[in-house]
Amino acid sequence: MLPQQRLELAVDIAREAGEKIVAARNGQAFNQQLKNGQELVTDVDVAVDTLIGERLEASLPGEQRLSEELAPDREVMSTAESLWVIDPIDGTVNFAHGLRHVAVSIAWVSEGKTRLGVVHAPFLGETYTALYGQGAWCNGKPIHASRTGNLQRCLVATGFPYRRDSRPPLMRRLMAVLEHCQDVRRNGSAALDLCDVACGRLDAYYESVSPWDFAAGVLIAREAGARTGHLYPCPKGIPEDLYGENILVSAPEIHAELGDLLRAADANELRYD
To answer: By Cβ atoms counted within 10 A, which residue in 26, 56, 102, 136 is the most buried?
Structure first.
């Protein structure tokens, strides 16, 4: 199946998944529990993950999947020649609380490179797509990242881990951004933060996340003209497109400066009077 055909399939699956998510929210027909004692998951996450897996298996039997709920074994990242990377509901807490920043994220990775990405936001009526080397779109219209070169005027998004003991070191980064940039947004969906960078609503995004959170969104941002990368070197054996630690995605001209700012915060080199 050609990449364009795979993209069309992924869009169709994502929209069907979105319909299921909206129906569950409207009917309040879902249960909640904590995964690993701290991360919220609903039975809708599992049901949507099942739907996506069944649709992909029916059209592309035998192709491997990495998904948050049903196939979370990350070993496939370094072994699979063809891999679907799926987050059935990115923004589960938002979904459970009735907020609109909720997305279905589907990416296809071949030979370690993300070849297509779909991020569908059913409550916002937006479907973001990208094909490797061919551009990015929202609802079929081309999108382009911010071209700002002024860090002080940048609107920056980030997020925080569920583990509260992991948060204090990140406060130094947050303080640095608040001191040197226009402001910060924390919307609760990495996939949609990346899409907001892709269409210029946000100027930058940084965070450490799981592969399924960002695989589709980072391709969409890159194809829209954003610069993508990591604050620190990636380990060998894991494709950079699937390594979610310390990612930084931004308007091209501020990427280096913002990266320096965040690394200085990590090293506790910044001082505030």
So the answer is: 102
Rg (CA), the chain: 18
135's torsion region: left (phi>0), alpha (psi -120 to 50) or beta? Answer: left
At residue 113, what are phi and psi to the nearest 5 degrees?
Answer: -120, 135
The pairing of strands 155-157 and 183-185 is parallel
**Going along the chain, which residue ranges are E strands?**
32-35, 39-42, 64-67, 82-90, 103-110, 113-121, 126-131, 135-138, 141-142, 155-157, 183-185, 204-207, 227-230, 247-250
Strand 141-142's sheet: what is its strand order? 64-67, 82-90, 103-110, 113-121, 126-131, 135-138, 141-142
pLDDT tens track for 232-258: 999 998 999 999 999 999 999 999 999
Give the pTM.
0.94
- The per-residue pLDDT for range 77-123, each reduced to its tens digit, is 877 789 999 999 999 999 999 999 999 999 999 999 999 999 999 99
